[in-house]
Write a structure and sequence with these properties.
With 463 residues, the chain is α+β, with helices and mostly antiparallel strands. It is 26% helix and 24% strand. Helix 2 runs parallel beside helix 6 and helix 5 packs across helix 6 (165-179).
């Protein structure tokens, strides 16, 4: 450990050290604004912010600035779902239609068989990026669920894992149906209030009561065209918060489902189940090697890790819990090379505070990896994206074209990147101006159907 993080350091010295590192690393990676919290042994040992919440407005990012935590919201929704399992209102392995008779998809087998466990582990097969604006009313999730009758399956039920926003919006509707309480209010009732959260909100009119960050895209960076996504995405990714309150939520899970005052929010058994591997990830290098119930699970050189990331319109969020070290870290950001900031900063914190070495990120192989381009060339497609793999000069190039409602909100509808071999069937890509590599995995299902796994999503080959 450095002098500032040694056991003899004062709380002010520890905070000053990590505030300085946040500022230095954010500047190195051209991150617009960032807010950091570190929870160790049940105590918030550091809280810091740097940069700008909104470039156009010139608003400073502070530790009280609300950022969008994006898909970290999914674990909050999952936690309430497990509390309802505890109470007998839901069951993990009973078909959803038993709890929500209105539920239909375009695939009858999926409709009849999908369970809560499938939704929590992203193995349902429902196309995961069905975004539909169903209005601002409390009935938005009910209206959204009705539209699923026309949504196709990306893969057979339980055949693989594919990150599924759609499944968590559906889950939010299930929670509403069995409790009679809208999802937003259910989060307040079951989590915000028991945890004593004062800077956590969902709806834009609630967030506007605070200093709020906006996302940024591009180089030079500019604010996103739209601040937030449609309300129907709520259970999958609309919570806004500050790191210390995200860490209060993490502490709930580190405490076996109890708040600091001893209030039980969810049972210890359900908390343990959420942290137990349920489904293997075809691409273990992006987030983790497997998924629990809500959390993704990883291993950092022999130490257990669970967590979740979030990405909305120009905002990125990162949460990792290292239970062996009694350590949790949260970083909220709003533009720039945020993934590289996460990697550098969390690596330092995990080592210096927890004595844990973060696993080595994926990179292209140093030596040639033999492969036949013909094995992978083709078109892969699902809702929201069309991916074309083509051969060029003996190598492979991936062209991704965003489709659907979100395409107009993104700075670039299409990107083209060379694939760099890592090992057989696994390649790496890197966005211009970014340091972090991301994997692209080619694999087949048990029935021989070829798929591409990228961004935690499974995309079938269609041509």
């Amino acid at each position: 450990m450095t002098g500032a993080t040694a056991t003899t350091a004062t709380p002010d010295q520890i905070t000053a050290h990590w505030a300085a590192r946040l500022h230095e690393l954010a500047a190195r990676h051209h991150v617009i604004g960032a807010s950091l919290g570190i929870l160790h042994r049940g105590r918030l040992i550091a809280e810091a912010a740097t940069g700008t919440a909104n470039l156009d407005a010139g608003t400073e990012a502070t530790t009280d600035t609300l950022f969008q935590i994006g898909s970290i919201s999914k674990v909050w929704t999952a936690t309430v779902a497990m509390a309802l399992v505890d109470e007998g209102l839901l069951e993990l392995d009973t078909p959803i239609v038993s709890f929500l008779p209105e539920f239909r998809t375009a695939d009858q087998q999926l409709t009849d068989g999908v369970t809560l466990r499938h939704l929590l582990t992203h193995t349902s097969g429902i196309d995961g990026d069905f975004f539909a604006d169903t209005g601002r009313g409390d009935d938005c999730l009910e209206k959204y669920t009705a539209l699923l009758a026309d949504v196709p399956a990306t893969h057979p039920l339980g055949a693989t894992l594919s990150y599924c926003n759609t499944g968590f919006t559906l889950l939010g509707r299930v929670l509403e149906y069995v409790t009679g309480v809208p999802w937003d209010e259910l989060m307040r009732e079951r989590l915000y209030r028991p945890l004593g959260l004062t800077h956590t909100a969902t709806l834009p009119e609630e967030v506007l009561s605070f200093r709020a960050a906006i996302g940024h895209f591009g180089n030079p960076p500019a604010p996103a065209k739209v601040w937030g996504l449609m309300r129907s995405v709520g259970p999958a990714g609309l919570i806004c918060s500050v790191p210390r309150e995200v860490l209060a939520f993490a502490q709930l899970h580190m405490n076996g489902g109890l708040t600091d005052d001893g209030t039980k929010v969810v049972s210890a058994g359900s908390v343990a189940a959420m942290q137990t591997p349920q489904a293997k990830v075809p691409d273990p290098d992006t987030l983790g090697h497997s998924w629990g119930l809500g959390w993704f699970l990883d291993d950092w050189n022999g130490h257990r890790v669970y967590g979740h990331d979030g990405a909305t319109l120009g905002q990125s969020a990162f949460l990792r819990v290292l239970p062996d070290a009694d350590l949790a870290i949260c970083l909220l950001t709003n533009g720039g090379d945020t993934r590289s900031l996460f990697g550098d900063l969390f690596r330092e914190i995990a080592q210096e505070v927890g004595g844990v070495t973060m696993r080595t990120p994926i990179e292209p192989a140093d030596e040639p990896v033999p492969f036949d381009p013909a094995d992978h060339v083709g078109v892969y497609e699902r809702l929201g994206v069309r991916i074309e793999i083509s051969e060029r000069d003996g190598g492979l190039v991936m062209r991704s074209t965003s489709t659907g409602p979100l395409a107009s909100l993104l700075p670039e509808a299409a990107t083209e990147l060379p694939l760099h071999p890592v090992r057989p069937g696994v390649f790496a890509v890197r966005q211009p101006g970014m340091e972090t590599w991301f994997p692209v995995v080619f694999y087949t299902l048990a029935d021989g159907t070829p798929y591409l796994h990228h961004g935690a999503r499974a995309t079938p080959k269609v041509g």
